[in-house]
Design goal:
Layout lengths: L15 H30 L14 H12 L1 H12 L3 H32 L6 H31 L5 H30 L3
Helix pairs in contact: 1-5, 1-6, 2-4, 2-6, 3-4, 3-6, 4-5, 5-6
């Protein structure tokens, strides 16, 4: 893998790939907005939230895990910065760091998700249904980010091209969105503990 390549010039307008990701992120934000609206609609119509027999969510572990996930925005931003300067090796390593940390986050979240399934089911109440839907959708988005980053790691191993830089910028946009969404999702999840 080449650690230095010719710097890639920045264009005046955003490339089509970035705009495609922006439209995708907007539709996903709408999807999550609908789920969050549904969560609060159900919460304010319920007598007890969470229902009897379902423990209130723990606060510490979700907050720590969310902090870990959000911190991956830094190596992703560093990867974009390095790629813009033509430093393929640095971009590759920064993206790998993000991928490894996000993989650990997702593994721990899946473990917690399965643990929660042992305690209550999505079919048992409106709370269970929206809880698992919201968390499952977010975990799915983290998994998509991991797949996109893995694809980019393979592509960046042979250097930086304009096309790969655009791909990295679009994936970085998506990762930042998923990380910001994690803050919202954990806030909604922990609102039941209040």
């Amino acid at each position: 893998m080449s650690s230095a390549a010719a710097p890639v010039e920045r264009g005046v307008a955003r490339p089509n790939g970035w705009w495609g990701m922006a439209v995708f992120v907007a539709t996903e934000a709408t999807l999550f907005g609908t789920m969050i609206g549904s969560y609060f609609y159900l919460r304010f119509r319920a007598v007890e939230w969470p229902p009897a027999g379902i423990p209130a969510p723990h606060v510490t572990v979700p907050l720590v895990l969310t902090g870990v996930l959000v911190s991956t925005s830094l190596p992703v931003a560093l990867a974009v910065s390095a790629a813009r300067r033509g430093l393929a090796g640095r971009a590759w390593w920064a993206l790998l760091v993000a991928l490894v940390v996000q993989s650990g986050y997702l593994a721990m979240q899946i473990h917690l998700y399965l643990h929660d399934l042992d305690r209550f089911s999505p079919q048992g109440s409106a709370y269970g249904s929206i809880y698992y839907t919201l968390l499952g959708a977010h975990h799915g988005h983290v998994a998509v980010a991991l797949l996109l980053e893995a694809w980019l790691l393979i592509r960046l191993a042979s250097g930086i091209t304009r096309y790969r830089l655009v791909g990295l910028q679009a994936v970085a946009f998506y990762v930042h969105f998923v990380n910001a969404l994690a803050l919202v999702v954990v806030g909604v999840q922990l609102s039941a503990a209040a």
